[in-house]
Design goal:
The complex is a heterodimer of chains A (421) and B (259). With 421 residues, chain A is mainly alpha-helical. Chain A has a single domain, classed as Orthogonal Bundle (ABC transporter involved in vitamin B12 uptake, BtuC). Chain A has 17 helices and 4 strands. In chain A, helix 6 packs across helix 13 and helix 11 crosses helix 13. Chain B has 10 helices and 10 strands. The relative contact order of chain B is 0.17. The termini of chain B are far apart. With 259 residues, chain B is α/β, with parallel strands linked by helices. Classes of the chains: A mainly alpha (421), B alpha/beta (259).
């Protein structure tokens, strides 16, 4: 029986999905009838689209696979050092730290050297990937480490984004000065929302945050308006180093807006990784994990649970706000519809796909879930209409084969597998 | 001279009187046992002492300070630590990390210190790790510091819970059935461990069903039945108390009311 289980699933898919895909229902107003037709033409994606794409772009396919493999392999190696697991011995810890620093330097070197040759689209991808990494790292603090499900993270992102957008519109505040006020307002929002709602546990908290995300969006629509706020920024940044030969080699056409953004984004990501790593291995990080594992026992061990959850909430909101500032600055416009429920789900998917609670997990998740659709759009425009199907299928496959996430720890896998009888 | 003085502690769940008017005192350095049939309210009494349940009424004084209805983490900081009847470790952490969590209320590095990992927080963390290793050694788990808590055998998990409680630097330790489900050898080891904890100057209150443990090390025994204290005294006194025998074994045929 067990051997035929895949076949049974296939059968299930046929029964459930086939009518949805291959039966076309149309209401004919003239006759007042439902008209059902067999839409065999929808088989096209199997018989012509995908084969044509693979046939025409097999080098690209291999390229994407190699890229994904390289990303996962690189972070796997990194994780093996000392990110997730904190070993008691000082020796392994220092060695891990050296290796991680080495990995960082390699990434930055590759970026520096390739910066010269990167096309604008690729730099754009880099900036967006870094933004999503920031957001995913912030969300992981609360969902992965403290174990509180937050479904309205885009609300916090919107708070930061609109703090910047409004200040920019009113006072012409530049991006560089906006981080501080946005972080303050974001953190305050997180704190104030957390005060009443963190007394709730589990599903109830998830629903409160879901409501919060939507509330923020409508609040902005009412307060600021539905139109986009345009953020104007200079296309080129003057630099003191422009006469330097090495500088001129690195940036042949000067320091463009996109290139500065990429560098700031990378710096923010590196800074975040460092800060979050420090937190993870501190008394506060341990207390967060303890709350995730068993809240009552944590309280009995002297951990002020509400205060620590509030701290996680606030910090996570600060990360969201900083990410939000960057998001709209790069986009050069802010619109309430950019921060809908879909955005919250996207960021949460990044955390889950990469591995909840693991250090590099959200990074991998953000890279894969942002770059995959973008690469599809750029290289295989035929496939872009199948994007939801691909992402959905990827998530389902993940939940079956690697419920702990791409780089999630083995222990979580054991835990998740145990729950299935 | 008492370290803990609970008077008239009551906890009702709706109409159910889980704990009714229980008095208990403990002197420093003493081992007090609480025994009683299943459902007698022993664990509920512990939950009242540690602030997990609010009291219906009653007073609890610890080191001449009123701690009734304080939050659990505040009570732990005052110096009362506990273990749980069903082991409640933090499964996805190593044994060492579990013990280090216990040190939270005795360390001070705040969020800014930990975010940038200042020398202060680094030094404090090092001290915490060293003390935690020492405690693991004390309970006999020195070789298992890096094992995941959930992977440890059951007997070790119980010891780890004790180490974690000790890391909060308590003056009073509440042990909820530390020898439950253990074989005679392990029971002996736990008894010896409790003795060593007392020798550190920590007062111990113990819930236990193993009479060998209870009579072996207790200075005093209190007996609960249906939420009320029915007897208290030295092990010898309690064992001969007819009320206690009745609670455990029931009335003799002759004593039973005629039906």
């Amino acid at each position: 029986m067990k051997r035929f289980r895949p076949l049974l699933w296939l059968l299930w898919c046929l029964i459930i999905a086939a009518p949805l895909v291959f039966v076309g229902l149309e209401y004919e107003w003239g006759k007042g009838l439902w008209n059902a037709t067999l839409r065999t033409d929808r088989l096209r994606f199997l018989v012509s689209d995908i084969p044509a794409w693979v046939g025409g772009h097999w080098l690209d396919v291999i390229g994407v696979l190699v890229f994904l493999g390289a990303v996962v392999g690189f972070l796997k190696l990194w994780q093996l050092t000392a990110w997730v697991q904190w070993r008691g011995e000082v020796e392994t810890r220092t060695r891990g730290r050296v290796r991680q620093a080495g990995a960082m330097i390699v990434v930055i070197l590759i970026l520096t050297l390739s910066c010269r040759h990167l096309a604008d689209t690729q730099i754009e991808w880099g900036v967006m990937v870094c933004t999503y990494i920031l957001l995913a790292l912030g969300l992981n603090l609360i969902v992965g480490m403290t174990g509180l499900l937050v479904l309205g993270y885009a609300g916090f992102v919107a708070v930061g984004a609109y703090t910047f957008a409004v200040l920019h519109q009113q006072f012409g505040l530049s991006l560089w000065l906006a981080f501080l006020p946005a972080a303050l307002v974001g953190g305050l929002t997180g704190f104030l929302l957390g005060l009443p709602s963190l007394r709730l546990r589990g599903d109830y908290l998830a629903i409160v945050t879901l409501g919060f995300g939507e509330t923020v969006r409508f609040l902005i629509k009412n307060l600021v308006g539905e139109q986009s706020i345009i953020i104007s920024r200079p296309a080129r940044v003057p630099s003191l180093m422009s006469e330097n030969a090495a500088w001129r080699w690195l940036f042949p056409d000067g320091l463009t807006r996109l290139k500065t953004e990429l560098w700031v984004a990378v710096a923010l990501v590196v800074l975040s990784i460092w800060l979050i790593r420090n937190l993870t291995h501190s008394r506060i990080g341990r207390a967060w994990i303890a709350i995730r594992e068993d809240e009552t026992a944590a309280a009995a061990m002297g951990i002020p649970t509400v205060r620590l959850k509030l701290l996680a909430f606030t910090l996570s909101a600060i990360w969201a706000a900083v990410g939000g500032v960057f998001f709209v600055a790069h986009n050069t416009s802010a619109n309430p519809e950019m921060f809908g429920f879909g955005e919250s789900v996207l960021i949460l998917s990044m955390v889950v796909l990469g591995g909840m609670g693991s250090g590099p997990g959200p990074i991998v998740g953000a890279i894969v879930l942002y770059l995959l659709p973008e690469v599809l759009r750029e290289r295989f425009p035929v496939l872009i209409s199948y994007r939801p199907m691909i992402v959905g299928g990827l998530m389902v496959a993940m939940m079956i084969f690697r419920p702990q996430g791409l780089v999630g720890s083995l222990r979580r896998k054991i835990e998740l597998k145990e729950e299935q009888p | 001279m008492t370290i803990l003085e609970a008077t008239g502690v009551s906890k009702y769940f709706g109409g159910l009187k889980a704990v009714e008017n229980v008095d208990l005192t403990a002197r420093p350095g003493e081992i007090v046992s609480i025994i009683g049939p299943n459902g007698a309210g022993k664990t509920t009494f512990f939950n009242c002492l540690t602030g997990i349940y609010p009291l219906t009424h009653g007073r609890i004084r610890f080191k001449d300070r009123d701690i009734a209805n304080h939050k659990p983490h505040v009570i732990t900081r005052h110096g009362i630590a506990r273990t749980f009847q069903n082991v409640r470790l933090f499964g996805e952490m190593t044994a060492l990390e579990n013990v280090m969590v216990g040190a939270y209320c005795r360390t001070r590095a705040g969020i800014l210190h930990t975010l940038v990992r200042t020398p202060f927080s680094r030094r404090e963390d090092g001290g915490t790790a060293a003390r935690a290793l020492e405690l693991l050694q004390f309970v006999g788990l020195a070789g298992h510091a890096d094992s995941w808590a959930r992977n440890l055998p059951y007997g070790y998990q119980r010891r780890l819970e004790i180490a974690r409680a000790l890391a909060t630097q308590p003056e009073l330790l509440l042990l909820d059935e530390p020898a439950a489900g253990m074989n005679p050898q392990e029971v002996g080891a736990v008894t010896e461990l409790i003795g060593r904890i007392r020798d550190r100057g920590i007062t111990v209150i113990l819930i236990e069903h193993h009479m060998k443990v209870v009579t072996g090390i207790s200075d005093r025994i209190a007996v609960l039945d249906y939420g009320e204290k029915i007897a208290e005294g030295t092990p010898k006194e309690v064992c001969c108390n007819p009320k206690v025998i009745q609670a455990y074994l029931g009335k003799t045929y002759e004593d039973a009311p005629a039906t």
